[in-house]
Write a structure and sequence with these properties.
Elements (H helix, E strand, L loop, with lengths): L3 E7 L3 E7 L5 E8 L11 E2 L1 H18 L7 E8 L4 E5 L9 E2 L7 H9 L2 H9 L8 H11 L3 H6 L3 E5 H9 L9 E3 H4 L5 E2 L4 E2 L1 H7 L8 E3 L8 E2 L10 E7 H8 L8 E5 L3 E8 L10 E6 L7 E8 L3 H11 L7 H6 L9 E3 L17 E3 L7 H27 L6 E4 L6 H11 L3 E4 L4 H13 L6 H7 L2 E5 L5 H18 L7
Parallel strand pairs: 1-5, 5-14, 9-12, 15-21, 21-22
Antiparallel strand pairs: 1-2, 2-3, 4-7, 6-8, 10-11, 13-14, 15-16, 16-18, 17-18, 19-20, 22-23
Helix pairs in contact: 1-6, 9-14, 10-12, 12-13
């Protein structure tokens, strides 16, 4: 009897496979990091072959480590870093170029040109997104224009595109031997190519970027009873049906059971991503947020969301470790930051790839301001944690303006939520309680939920709600004066990052 559902969580810095039981409890897990390739300032790439190999390896290791086999699994889902673009040859299975990561800024001229000539307004209306380096379409255009032979291969139908979910699904279901080329509505909504109302690729938008329609995957629901195919790779889970596919932030929203309009979650990973469920109504932002598909289950109508995307939060902690060397592991950030009572006047705005929501300024670059001889590495560590929280406040302020809904409590998940000081700072800076669930890695859980719903492993969303349990809650400790003074300082620091690089 099938007692479990599995999920690949293919993230920006690592890939993991997680196994969940009917109560939503984690029953197995394995995770491997992959290389961050940065050939030039502002360029961020991954090796798609390494991503596939690591994803396949963590699946095998997790299943074997749990002592399970194919017959123990009802279904399998995938969740992934969104917007990261892979273009590969459908005949050989080889990528034409490294995956261009969502953080990459090489397409700033493409985005600026769209904004200047008015096409940006069409993209906002149809796709719900501003023209920005963040999204997939500009990355595909860059590959078509800069990698020899890809344009011709695309015209012949040999070069195909997908975000990392499509790349993994194609490989899992056979690759060159009949692998399926599909994506779901949530990933498609992050490309600047899908019309949010029709849930189909839009010919006008494709024309803006010069992308042949034949390159694109077929768009399916996020939870699909018909499935995307079966795992054909020999070994663990061969024959298991693939029935769930969501971009990582939408998956976390499902994992946090935010199924009612007005419910919101914030995921703390490489970046921060806050989603507010707006129901079947497509709400368009006037405050720098994104309109996006939240999920679509089977043949039901799509559910939409407003999203605030922040590029650099957890990766700022990685920067302290890898580039500055002031910590040897992420957990040391809390220990170091607790050595001081406050930030000592230091603010760190980690605009390494410009500023995302609600600013959308590709001309911004990172800055550490307010330094004096008094300051130590402990102040910088604390300023890094505060930067995570202040950027989230920027998004919440915009979300309240768009929706008219004031936040009562913030549901949080992701790796950074293990940092208790950071979560306390988040409550202090927002002035509302912060709640972490028992299963903090809700991204993989959401993909498992989508897959399990499709095959009846869970009968409905009420059953999923019953699985959600609070692990810890942080209540605000700062007074209003302290909170507002800190935010004023943050806004001044953000101003210092703007107009740093020229964008044509």
């Amino acid at each position: 009897m099938a007692d479990f559902v599995g999920a690949i969580d293919q993230g920006t810095t690592s890939s993991r496979f997680m196994i969940f039981d009917h109560e939503g409890n984690e029953r197995g897990k394995h995770q491997l990091e992959h290389e961050q390739i940065m050939p030039r300032p502002g360029w961020v790439e991954h090796n798609p072959v390494e991503i596939w190999e690591r994803s396949s390896a963590v699946l095998q290791t997790a299943v074997n480590g749990a002592g399970l086999s194919t017959s123990d699994f009802a279904a399998m889902g995938i969740t992934n870093q969104r917007e990261t673009a892979v273009v590969w040859n459908i005949k050989t299975g080889r990528p034409y170029y490294n995956a261009i990561v969502w953080q990459d800024t090489r397409t700033d001229r493409i985005a600026s040109a769209l904004e200047r000539d008015g096409r940006g307004d069409v993209i906002r209306q149809k796709a719900g997104l501003p023209p920005a380096t963040y999204f997939s379409a500009g990355k595909v255009q860059w590959i078509l224009e800069n990698v020899e032979g890809v344009r011709e291969a695309a015209e012949r139908g040999e070069a195909i595109f997908g975000n990392t979910d499509s790349w993994l699904l194609w490989n899992l279901t056979g690759g060159v031997r009949g692998g399926v080329h599909v994506t779901d509505v949530t990933n498609a909504s992050r490309t600047m190519l899908m019309n949010l109302e029709t849930l189909d690729w839009d010919d006008e938008l494709l024309g803006f970027f010069g992308i042949p329609r034949a390159m694109l995957p077929y768009i399916r629901p996020s939870s699909d009873p018909a499935g995307y195919g079966e795992v054909t790779v020999p070994g663990a889970l061969a024959g298991v049906r693939l029935t769930g596919d969501l971009g990582d932030q939408q998956a976390a929203t499902v994992g946090q059971v935010c199924f009612n309009p007005g419910e919101a979650k914030n995921t703390y990973g490489t970046g921060n991503f806050m989603l507010l469920n707006t129901g079947e109504e497509l709400v368009r932002s006037s405050n720098g947020l994104l309109s996006t598909v939240c999920y679509q289950f089977g043949d039901s109508k799509p559910v939409y969301a407003l999203e605030g995307s922040i590029a650099v939060t957890g990766s700022a902690v990685q920067w302290l470790r890898d580039q500055l060397g002031i910590i040897s592991g992420a957990s040391e950030t809390e220990t170091l930051a607790r050595q001081v009572a406050d930030n000592g006047g230091v603010y760190f705005v980690p605009a390494f790839s410009g500023l995302f929501a609600p600013y959308w300024r590709s001309d911004a670059r990172g800055a550490i301001v307010g330094l004096s001889r008094y300051n130590t590495n402990a102040h910088l560590a604390r300023a890094t944690l505060e930067a995570i929280c202040y950027q989230s406040r920027d998004v919440i302020e915009a979300m309240a303006s768009d929706s008219g809904v004031a936040l009562d409590v913030l549901k949080v998940d992701g790796g950074v939520t293990a940092n208790n000081l950071c979560m306390q700072l988040q409550a202090d800076i927002l002035g509302v309680p912060v709640s972490r669930p028992v299963v903090a890695e809700t991204t993989a859980l959401g993909a498992a939920y989508a897959a399990g719903l499709a095959v009846g492993f869970w009968k409905d969303t009420d059953e999923l709600r019953a699985n959600w349990n609070e692990s810890q809650r942080w209540s605000p400790e700062w007074n209003d004066e302290q909170r507002e003074a800190g935010y004023v300082g943050w806004k001044k620091a953000v101003e210092r990052t703007l107009d740093w690089v020229e964008v044509d």
